[in-house]
From TrEMBL:
NCBIfam families: phageshock_pspB (TIGR02976), PRK09458.1 (NF006993). It comes from the Bacteria. It comes from Marisediminitalea aggregata. Pfam families: PspB. Keywords: Membrane, Transmembrane, Transmembrane helix. One of its GO terms (biological process) is regulation of DNA-templated transcription. The keyword Transmembrane helix applies. The chain crosses the membrane at residues 6-27. This is Phage shock protein B.
Length: 79
């Protein structure tokens, strides 16, 4: 390989190693740290609220299914 070809390969590699790689590593490990920290207190509260709403919705569905079962026993077989 001649000097021109080496320069064409080496220049982008050096730019990558000096600028891109350090930023990439910093952002990568920062995101890993955030993932490992878990849920924030705000997230935990929101998750508890959603779980409560899901339980209420499940109870409502059971009630509606019981009403439908008593008033229209064949409703589950309809398409």
């Amino acid at each position: 390989m001649d000097e021109g070809t080496v320069a064409l390969i080496l220049a982008p590699l050096i730019i990558f190693l000096i600028f891109v790689a350090p930023i990439w590593l910093i952002l990568h490990y920062r995101s890993k740290k955030q993932v490992n920290q878990g849920l924030t207190a705000e997230d935990q509260i929101a998750l508890q609220e959603l779980a409560g709403k899901a339980e209420m919705m499940a109870d409502r569905i059971k009630t509606l299914e019981a009403i439908l079962d008593s008033e229209a026993p064949e409703w589950r077989n309809r398409a």
